[in-house]
Amino acid sequence: MNVSAPKLAVIGDVHGSAGQLSALLARLPAGYEPIFVGDFVDRGPDPVAVLDTLIANRFRAVKGNHDDKLFRALKGNPVQVGGGLAATLERIRSQSAPWRERLMVWLAELPTVLLFPGIAVVHAYWSPTCPPDEHLWGPRFHDKQGKIYRIRWWSVPEYWTPGIQVVFGHYHMPVVTPQAVCVDFGAPEGPLAAYLTDTQAFLIELPRQVALPEPGSAL
Ligand SMILES: [Mn+2]
């Protein structure tokens, strides 16, 4: 093992799941710095508490596509409001003006990539030469009809960077290779995960509530 490897706990897309986040943080072993791959809002019940946790603790994080869209919406730019953004905006707009100002400063300063020895933490994809848009969305392919496909870059050697393991979220796919580790386990419907970069182990916090089918309903 590389003795100079940083002790990071890279935490996947939280998506408003404040309960899973606080439980996972409480279980982090001593000596690990939590680092976040972005997508703090939308889908889960409490985006405000998640943002409070990040901002109050000054945790290091990168920006996800959902955070970027939230930032553009709060600035008054036209965005397509879907995927839970309407509920997020409603909750954020009910906060105090100072709280919202602090959020805007925090969002404006969020980087899109954090580099460590041998490790790049990013929301979707990083290489030294890729366009910054790909940090948030990953490399994509447009067909002749304009339909967009996500490229599974971790399976394509041309997308890899020698000597760097890219730790990312965004895809909710099981990926653990020397070049790429996905830490998005699908919270809040799925687990929230932390990847411990020195031991290459995962800590898993299960979803808060598992929705069981109603008795007698079709499965
Ligand atoms: Mn996400």
From TrEMBL:
GO BP annotations, alphabetical order: RNA decapping
Q: Which GO terms describe its molecular function?
A: bis(5'-nucleosyl)-tetraphosphatase (symmetrical) activity; phosphatase activity
GO cellular component terms, A-Z: cytoplasm
Coiled-coil regions, chain positions: none
One Pfam family per UniProt: Metallophos
Look up the domain of life of the source: Bacteria
| Calcineurin-like phosphoesterase domain location | 7-174
Q: Name the PANTHER family for this protein.
A: METALLOPHOSPHOESTERASE, ZINC-DEPENDENT ENDOPOLYPHOSPHATASE
This chain belongs to which protein, by name? Gll0589 protein
